[in-house]
Each structure stands twice: as C-alpha cells, then as structure tokens.
C-alpha cells in the first residue's frame, strides 16, 4: 500500500507493508497515491505472528482474545461462561469419555446379540400378528417361512434354548405342547384331507425350543432346497412323542452321531421313496400323489 492513511482498525499500514484483516476488523482504504492489492483467503490455522507487521495498540491482545471467545460462544449457541466453566463444557474428562464409549459398545453388543437372525423366534412369539393361539404355558405362531400349506410352531413361554436343555422337569410342558399341536390340527379346515406330523429338528437353526406342526403336502414356495426337504423327511426330524419318551427314560434328548449329514442325502419322495434330481421335479412328482 502507500503512505496514504490506509488502515486496519485505525492502525496505519505503511508503504510496502502487509497486514492481516481479522473477522470483525474494519479496513479503511484511500487510494490515488499508491497501488494496492487486497487478497481474500480462508486460513485454517492461526496466522504466524511474524508476518503481521502492523503496529499494535496496548490492550489489542485482550480485546481480540475476548472477542474470539465471545464469538465462539455465539456459534455453539450458549450463554457466555466463566473461563473455569469453559474447559468442562468443551473438553469432557477422558475418564467420562472412556466410560461413555465403553457403555456405548456394550449397548451395541447387546443390540447385535438380540437382533441376530437366530433369535427371531423370540421376537415373533410376542408379535400379536404372528400368534394364532396362546395360553399360560405356550404360544402358537405361523412359521414365517412355511414349508407346507399349514406349518405352525408351538413355543413355550419359558426360555429353553435347545433340545439339549430339556430334562424330566419339562415332560409335562412337552406333553402340553404336543396336545396344543393336535388341537391345531383338529381345528384345521383341511385336516380331513391332509396328513400332519409333529416333531423337532435335531439341530434347529433358530434358538428357543419349538415344536413343528406341519402338513405333509409340502406345497410351499418357501421349500427351496435339499436341506429344507431333508430336515422334515429324514431322521433329522424327531417325532414329538419320541422326544417325550426319550426324556422320560433317559432324562435327556440324545441325537445320534452323523444326524447332521442326513441333510445331504438325495431327494426322495416321502410317500413312494422314489428319488428325484431337483426340488422342482420333486414338487411335480408330489402333485401326482395328490394332497396327503
């Protein structure tokens, strides 16, 4: 600039000198004597003091610092605070932060555990839209992915994760579950034309013991693969009465070694035992037998 009285907040800028214009300051420009250049840039860091050559008046530091503090408080929408209070607001103690993060991780972990697909039955059994029967011991729901025209699940209200957790104390409950399953069959409008089976999967994919009550037509778009078919048409499917007798005799449910391999067996018609190469061909074959 020049020796003309160009100034920043009344601080005159001399010839060939530079000055940094801060927010809130006023630039006074008087030309006609020397050429000048004004550059507008966005600075991400505090300007280096060495580059600021303008003369400073006493009290400028305190004034600017106070102005910056007030401006920061306005940005976050808070009332001005004493300096002793500002640290606690803007910088929480590391101990509290760590505790909050730890608590957050724990909550996320619990949500992830509860939300896992294998826990789906625990959610469905409390859904009124899924319930078709309930009493003080059990609830009956429609299977979300039925493998036949009629496919219900009978679940106890008490929490029993798997067949391995069953013992003689559960015998009366299992008998009640079986009785409710038979009740569902009796009340089915097509019960005179369809056969039903009641039983448990040896190694169910869903947590919480549940009794399958399923019609033997297996007419459902949800029956899609060999695993689906074999889980109901091999010894992988344990009859309800057999489970009850096993517990009465041995006090527990014992699953034979190699049972899980039954899911890999070739597809065979459950009526005539004829082998079929694919699920679509098996379904076509079942239609020849009619509804069973």
From TrEMBL:
Subunit structure: Interacts with single-strand break repair proteins XRCC1, XRCC4, ADPRT/PARP1 and p53/TP53. Interacts with NCL. Interacts (via FHA-like domain) with MDC1 (phosphorylated).
Documented EC number(s): 3.6.1.71, 3.6.1.72
An example Gene Ontology molecular-function term: single-strand break-containing DNA binding
Motif (Histidine triad motif): 208-212
Gene Ontology annotations for the cellular component aspect, listed alphabetically: nucleolus; nucleoplasm
UniProt function note: DNA-binding protein involved in single-strand DNA break repair, double-strand DNA break repair and base excision repair. Resolves abortive DNA ligation intermediates formed either at base excision sites, or when DNA ligases attempt to repair non-ligatable breaks induced by reactive oxygen species. Catalyzes the release of adenylate groups covalently linked to 5'-phosphate termini, resulting in the production of 5'-phosphate termini that can be efficiently rejoined.
Protein name in UniProt: Aprataxin
Segments for region (Disordered): 49-113
